[in-house]
Amino acid sequence: MTEATGEAASEVLAPSPGKGPGRLRTLLSAYAPAILVFLAVGFAWEAAVAFFRIPKFLLPAPSVVIQRIIADAEPLAQNVFVTMQAAVAGLILGTIIALAFALIFLMSRILERALFPWAIIVQTVPILAIAPLLTIWLGFGIAPKIAVSAIITIFPILVNTVRGLRSVNRQVFELMRVIGASPGQTFREVRVFAAMPYTFAGLRISAGGAVIGAIVAEFTGANLGIGTVIVNAGYRQDATMLFSAIFCSCVATIALFYVVVALERLCLFWPDARLES
Amino acid sequence: MSAALAQESGGHLPAISIAGVSMVFDSPSGPVTALKGIDLAIPKNRFVSIVGRSGCGKSTLLRLICGLVRPTVGQVTVDGMTPDLYQRDRRFGFVFQEATLLPWRTALENVALPMKIQKVVQPARREERARELLKLVRLQGFEGHYPSQLSGGMRQRVSIARALSYDPEILLMDEPFGALDEFTRQEMNEELVRLWQEQNRTIVFVTHNLAEALYLSDIVVVMAPHPGRVRAVIEVDLPRPRRAAIRQGGDFIARLARLEEVISHD
């Protein structure tokens, strides 16, 4: 909009987060407790390992893990990258499939009743059992990983999006009819926006699941990826490497989660759009 | 038929005529008669209120007029057409109980929505016209605000501006100020009368606030519940322009008492 309205908006708008030192303080009070606990656990762990002389093959101290991550930074990064490629591709594919089925469910209650049990089957089937099957069918490359990630992704997004598409108040439909909107226009102007907050709530759940899916697929046979690093370290009983791999995949998953959150901030541009904090 | 009805209501040509309309809904506990034997003529360019207890079918009647629901029996004629035809050719203005704004659209975009949907005004003109309308409802400076950043009264003003954006000759209002506090409600009453007097329109206004109905209207239609029916059609011949102060006058209070009597009489 014009500058004038922008100014007016920022004036009246907003339980304002404030500027300068005020903002820093809110950031600090938001993150300080978590950071403090994190550091405390790290120190306690380090101290316990030293005090009880716990051997490295049982429980390596955080400092040892960090040293290992630095030493093996390059192969770790490479493997994480391979896994994340599959996870992101699976997340995108799963989202597309979920949105397509959400539309089908919206258009036909009968199809929803017919197909929804399959969504539940896909969701409840043990992923560890499906992964080797998909590896048999799709080979040792990226394909089975994408498939497993997609399967995990679908359900939360599908269920949430269907709810969102149906979350529109009856009066809004009456309004659209009175002003002469076609069903297509009502969909574009109303349903898409009503569904978006729900879709993103699902997407946030699915983001973590997608990475887990890719790692699980790598367990059952893959040439590269953090899952293979974990399996190999397990065979060698290399606890330090296991912790390093766990740490790296956690960081990558959190990064993906925040990419989704950033995308959500971009798409849900209006106030009060997001379902939870 | 319509001529006779028009005669009844003071010789004006009816904008809306409702003849022998009954409305039966199916419910889990059997059919429910929402409206029974409604005959009503609403003259052109008059301000008509429909009052009555909740459950007397006021809102249903409004939805019948604009074709959102269809009568089980009887006929609704708007300007000589069926509601569907009228809706296709000219469109009703409708103001809902809640403002019913799209949360993802700014005040300006909400006002411009019908023009965008109907593609009647050129895109460049839409924004200009929406600005004028927001000014008309005294919301200049709030164009870029989202609905959640506006107060209840402001939101309802936006929705009135939206209803006026395509210049409907008939404006249907379904308890539009019911959710507002008394102070804001009276303010909105003033605004509405001002808007109505600036440009002639037929307004059908549903409310359960009798003082509001009396203050605003030329004609008050009193409805009774179970089944919903018209109990009385009362002409309000208070001179215009009316000032807010007449609400405290003896004449107004006496009329209010009589109106209350008509409603509570069972």
TrEMBL record, chain A:
Organism: Kaistia hirudinis
Gene Ontology CC: one annotated term: plasma membrane
Similarity comment text for this entry: Belongs to the binding-protein-dependent transport system permease family.
Xref: CDD domains: TM_PBP2 (cd06261)
All residue ranges annotated as the ABC transmembrane type-1 domain in the record: 76-264
InterPro entries: MetI-like (IPR000515), MetI-like_sf (IPR035906)
Membrane-crossing segments per the record: 28-52, 86-106, 118-140, 146-165, 210-235, 241-261
GO process annotations (BP): transmembrane transport
A Pfam match: BPD_transp_1
Cellular localization per UniProt: Cell membrane
Keyword entries, A-Z: Cell membrane, Membrane, Transmembrane, Transmembrane helix, Transport
Predominant cellular place of this UniProt entry's protein: membrane
Name under which the protein is recorded: NitT/TauT family transport system permease protein
The organism's place on the tree of life at top rank: Bacteria
Topology versus the membrane: Multi-pass membrane protein
TrEMBL record, chain B:
Molecular function, one GO term: ATP hydrolysis activity
Claim: Nucleotide-binding is one of the keywords in the record: yes
PROSITE patterns registered for this protein in UniProt: ABC_TRANSPORTER_1, ABC_TRANSPORTER_2
Top-level lineage group: Bacteria
Keyword terms: ATP-binding, Nucleotide-binding, Transport
Limits of the ABC transporter domain: 16-250
Family from the record: Belongs to the ABC transporter superfamily.
Protein name (record): NitT/TauT family transport system ATP-binding protein
Source organism of this protein record: Kaistia hirudinis
